[in-house]
Each structure stands twice: as C-alpha cells, then as structure tokens.
Amino acid sequence: MNLFKNVVPLKTSKRSFWGALNAIFNRVSASRIALVGPDRACAEWLMRNGAFVRWKDQPGFVTHYNFLPLDPAEKHPYYIEEVSAVEASISYHGFDHFKGCDHILKIKFQKCWYIDNTCLKNLELLKNSLIHLEIDECGEITDQGLLHLSHLPNLMSLKIGKLDGVKKLQDCIKEINAKLPNCHIMPPSL
Q1: How far is it, in rounded angstroms, from Cα 156 to Cα 180?
Q2: Which tens digit of pLDDT belongs to each residue from 75-90?
Q3: What InterPro entries does the entry give (predicted)?
Q4: Do 127 and 154 meet the contact criterion of CB atoms below 8 Å apart?
Q5: How much is the average pLDDT of 148-152?
Q6: How far, in Å, CA of 179 to CA of 147, rounded?
Q7: Per residue in 153-168, pLDDT tens?
Q8: For residue 92, what are the contacts with CB-CB under 8 A and spacing of at least 6?
Q9: Rounded distance, CA 94 to CA 22, Å?
Q10: pTM for the whole thing?
C-alpha cells in the first residue's frame, strides 16, 4: 500500500525564494538607524547587498563590511558621499535607508537586477544632494522610471547606459532636459 501515490509534489519558484531573501536583506531597521545614525545604517545596507560607499573627505571606497567604523557613538563624523553599486542586489525595499543621508552626491547603478522604476522614484529622498547619477544595464527600468529622475532638481549629470526596458530613450532625454535644463545627459554610445 503506497500512502503517497496521490501526493502532488510542492513546486516552489526559485525566483520567489530569491525575491523573498532579497526583501529580507533590504529590510529597513528603524532601531538600527536610531543606534548608529542614517549614514552608517545606509552603508551597512548597501554593503550587505554588494555595493560600496565612499565617505565624505575620504579618497577611496569602503570595499569590505568589516572596514566600516565600529563605534556606534560615532554617528556624525561619517557621511556617505558616493555609492558604487555594481552587480549589487539593492532593491526598492531598502531605499528608505537613504532618508537622512544628506551628503550623497554621486550614485552609480550598474548591472543591478533589482533596480526598477520604484527605486528611481525613491531617489527623490536624495533630491537635495544628488548631483551625479549613472545607470547602466538595469533591465527593470522603463521609460516611466527614467522620467522620475526629473524630480531631482540638483542633478547636474546623468549618464545613461544600456537600459533594455527603455523604449523611447530620446523622448525621455528631451523631457528630463526640459525639466532639468542644467543637467548634462550622456546617452549610451551607439
């Protein structure tokens, strides 16, 4: 007698597993932000997901999580000035980490598979500081997402690489330029 002959195997999607895991790694912890300050908590989030940060007045990027400042009492001497996210797994779930990070001038997103339209909309959290942005090979971004960048009034340079989800790039560039006339937009080289 085979008790299990009518049992249907449970199929789980590998994608949903990784998506759930990504949401966990990108989760915002208000208690951690209160303990170490917004810049340190943001740096921890970015580095936990494969990105690097450069502190204000420091020449190089922090490339290993263990090289972050250790003393939680040192909330104010360290401010993130630049983010390099290359093949990082940051997603919109964690973008609230940018709240209170008032010194971020430059961000590079390259081959970040979870960067999407919502992420670009949430960059508005950095509208008072962000002046340079580079986006390349982030396939989830569409025309609509790119247009969210027009809400960054201080943006002075926007470097756009290959974005497969953007269908009318020239129209997007014209619209962003109309709203941000001081922004130099560098489209992908053909």
Answers
A1: 8
A2: 567 999 999 999 999 9
A3: LRR_dom_sf
A4: yes
A5: 98
A6: 10
A7: 999 999 999 999 999 9
A8: 26, 114, 116, 118, 119, 122
A9: 10
A10: 0.88
> What DSSP element (H or E) covers 15?
helix 14-25
Runs of H (alpha helix) within 38-152: 38-48, 117-122, 143-147
Q: Could you give the CA distance from residue 146 to residue 168 in angstroms, rounded to a whole number?
A: 10
Comparing CA positions, the residue from 190, 185, 189, 157 lying closest to residue 172 is 185
∠25-41-43 over CA atoms, to 5°?
Answer: 80
User: Cα(127)–Cα(162) distance, rounded to whole angstroms?
Assistant: 24
> Residue 96 contacts by C-beta under 8 Å, 6 or more apart in sequence?
28, 122, 125
Structure tokens at 77: 């001497």
11 vs 43: CA distance, rounded Å: 36
Q: State how far the Cα of 112 lies from the Cα of 60, in Å rounded to an integer.
A: 22
Secondary structure E strands in the chain: 52-55, 80-86, 106-110, 132-136, 157-160, 184-186
d(CA 85, CA 57): 20
Q: Tell me how far apart the alpha carbons of residues 125 and 57 are, in angstroms, rounded to a whole number.
A: 22
